[in-house]
Design goal:
alpha/beta; three-stranded antiparallel beta sheet; 21% helix; 244 residues; 6 helices; disordered N terminus; seven-stranded mixed beta sheet
Length: 244
């Protein structure tokens, strides 16, 4: 890990991040490399692996920075979804939209797997970080950065009914639950759209999200992931959503 700036941001008292703090009795997860508790503009390299042998399929270069918000660091569900994507031979010819991209990790993996066009989306404060990461991985030709606030109209630059919608670690802020469901529904105007949704169970309030989700979607466990048993022990779940 290379620190690009000595700036140190104390996140210990930010209310929106308190539910991400691990209990002190929990062991450090090996699903994601350790990061400093206070993360400020650091360059990391994440190996993406398709199987349990830990042999990297490729490495993703990421700048992580908690300054713009909690989305600016790499969370475990994003790594799980990235690893699962790498089990596919290729995404060649597919259009892909990632929601709540944060660092852009999952969408960048889709780009490295030769998806024809990828849109990584989030709120305005995170866009510059995502542009930096797209450039670090040499993906300017097929990965675009776009602002998308959940619950608003899909901008004309982002396709409705893409081939693949990706969402990882998006269930964390209860007031946004209904907005996220609305945006997922707006992107899935065709049943041909595949939605891969990965999340880490943290709070009882997560049930409210799934109660809202079931009004628009059904879902099933993704069972063909060789690492499924491993990450389920970490309370991380990967679903395939199906539009009703």
């Amino acid at each position: 890990m290379i620190t690009l700036s000595p700036t140190d941001v104390d996140l210990s008292n930010v209310p929106e991040l308190l539910h991400f703090k691990c209990d002190e009795s929990e062991e450090q997860s090996d699903i994601i490399p350790s990061q400093l508790p206070t993360t400020a503009y650091q360059l990391i390299s994440l190996p993406v692996t398709s199987g349990q042998d830990e042999t990297p399929s490729f490495d993703v270069k990421l700048t992580v920075d908690a300054g713009p918000g909690c989305g600016g660091v790499a969370w475990p569900a994003g790594r799980v979804l990235s690893n699962y994507l790498s089990t596919r031979k290729s995404l060649q010819g597919l259009s892909v939209v990632e929601l709540g991209s944060g660092t852009g990790l999952v969408g960048i993996v889709a780009g490295l797997m030769h998806a024809e066009s990828v849109w990584i989306t989030d709120q305005e404060p995170l866009l510059e970080l995502m542009r930096t990461n797209v450039s670090l991985n040499g993906l300017a030709t097929n990965v675009q950065v776009a602002e998308l606030d959940w619950g608003t109209d899909i901008p004309p630059t982002i396709p409705r009914s893409p081939d693949l919608v990706l969402a990882a670690d998006c269930v964390y802020f209860e007031p946004a639950f209904e907005l996220l469901v609305s945006t997922l529904s707006a992107l899935a105007t065709s049943r041909k759209t595949e939605i891969l949704f990965c999340y880490k169970k943290r709070r009882k309030a997560d049930k409210r999200f799934f109660n809202l989700l079931k009004k628009e979607f059904t879902w099933e466990d993704v069972k063909d992931d060789p690492r499924r048993e491993e990450y389920c022990r970490e309370s991380i779940f990967l679903y395939r959503l199906l539009k009703k």
